């Protein structure tokens, strides 16, 4: 198959994935839940930072996803992994399609899953299928897993402590309802800034799941990285505008939010996402935000809305489902790329 045709197919699927990721992006949920901005204003801000984050921060994490997980190389640049009869194009196509399918299903259900785990799950499934246990760089997976496990713990703990501190010291210093309103108004400015930082770094991190595996094709494809990232950013923005409001509303209503508590929820998410993106680590913003919301609920002793356990169940199933999808899809897809 002609390289231009293959690249076009890759780009189309990457755009679908980016739209699905945008549709599953709940970064702006605290702004909605605390009623600082209306949905139209939220979507405008989300679009701006989706494009900026993908273009400015996207390349680093995308290179990690695209080039460090599978233990296969194509030094000859002929589209065939060295020492095998495995088509690199078939592998890329399979991972893209399996990721897209799972993201679309979860978005349709209004569930905030991890696009990172969807992509990595598909890569692991194919790596094991084609190369056995040695087909995956487990040291890289272990390094990523430490971040994946620690980030929700950080989100829960930091939010819990911040809310407790706010309750202890803020209420003592306030005198009457007007003071309370004035204080909350100050926090609304802070949360706006923090969420913009989160949206910026989140877009840079999430764009890797749409284009990282394509960038892993390296010199076999006539790629322009900046153009690819711009297209990804615009596609993320389209997903947020068209379908993202569903997930934003769903998580925004998960527990009671005020500007001050929304600030407590968003601080750990912003810090961890920005740090991880700079370190080129693919992270799950969904895990961070939901863990922070649970921390808020526990600290303020407010009830969580129904649906938390369904979200957790989907998280746990994402890796195996993505891996199985990739394995099943590889066989028909590989027939389109004969060696």
Which helices and strands, and how do they pair?
Layout: H1 3-23, H2 29-33, H3 39-67, H4 88-108, H5 115-131, H6 138-173, H7 177-215, H8 225-252, H9 259-278, H10 285-300, H11 308-334
Q: Please describe the biggest sheet, giving its number of strands, its sense, and whether it closes into a barrel.
A: none
Mean pLDDT: 80
Shape: elongated
Give the number of DSSP strands: 0
**Classification by helices and strands:** mainly alpha
The amount of beta strand, in percent, is under 5%
Q: Report the span from N to C terminus.
A: 11 Å
Q: Any idea what the radius of gyration is?
A: 21 Å
Uncertain residue segments: none
Q: How much helix, percentage-wise, in residues?
A: over 70%
How many alpha or pi helices? 11
Order of helices and strands: HHHHHHHHHHH
User: In total, how many domains does the architecture comprise?
Assistant: 1
Give a quick rundown of the structure.
It is built from eleven helices and no strands. The protein has 339 residues and is mostly helical.
What labels describe this entry?
339 residues; mainly alpha
């Amino acid at each position: 198959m002609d390289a231009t045709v293959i690249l076009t197919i890759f780009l189309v699927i990457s755009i679908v994935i980016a739209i699905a990721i945008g549709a599953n992006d709940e970064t702006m949920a605290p702004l909605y839940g605390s009623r600082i901005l209306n949905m139209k204003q939220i979507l405008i801000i989300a679009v701006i930072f989706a494009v900026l984050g993908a273009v400015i921060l996207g390349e680093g994490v995308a290179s990690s996803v695209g080039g460090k997980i599978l233990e296969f190389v194509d030094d000859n640049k002929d589209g065939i992994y060295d020492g095998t009869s495995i088509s690199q194009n078939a592998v890329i196509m399979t991972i893209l399609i399996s990721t897209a399918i799972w993201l679309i299903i979860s978005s349709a259900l209004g569930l905030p899953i991890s696009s990172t785990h969807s992509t990595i799950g598909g890569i692991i499934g194919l790596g094991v299928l084609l190369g056995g246990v040695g087909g995956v760089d487990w040291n890289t997976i272990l390094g990523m897993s430490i971040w994946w496990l620690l980030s929700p713990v950080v989100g829960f703990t930091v939010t819990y402590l911040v809310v407790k501190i706010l309750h202890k010291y803020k209420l003592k210093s306030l005198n009457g309802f007007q003071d309370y309103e004035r204080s909350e108004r100050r926090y609304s400015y802070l949360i706006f800034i923090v969420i913009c930082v989160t949206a910026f770094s989140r877009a840079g991190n999430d764009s890797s799941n749409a284009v990282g595996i394509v960038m892993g094709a390296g010199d076999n494809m006539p790629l322009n990285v900046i153009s690819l990232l711009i297209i990804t950013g615009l596609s993320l923005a389209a997903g947020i505008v068209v379908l993202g409001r569903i997930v934003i509303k769903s998580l925004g209503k998960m527990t009671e939010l005020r500007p001050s508590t929304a600030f407590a929820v968003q601080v750990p998410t912003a810090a961890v996402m920005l740090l991880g993106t700079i370190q080129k680590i693919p992270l799950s913003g969904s895990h961070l935000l939901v863990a922070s919301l649970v921390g808020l609920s526990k600290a303020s002793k407010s009830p969580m809305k129904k649906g938390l356990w369904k979200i957790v169940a989907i998280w746990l199933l994402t890796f195996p489902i993505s891996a199985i999808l990739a394995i099943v899809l590889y066989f028909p897809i590989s027939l389109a790329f004969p060696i």
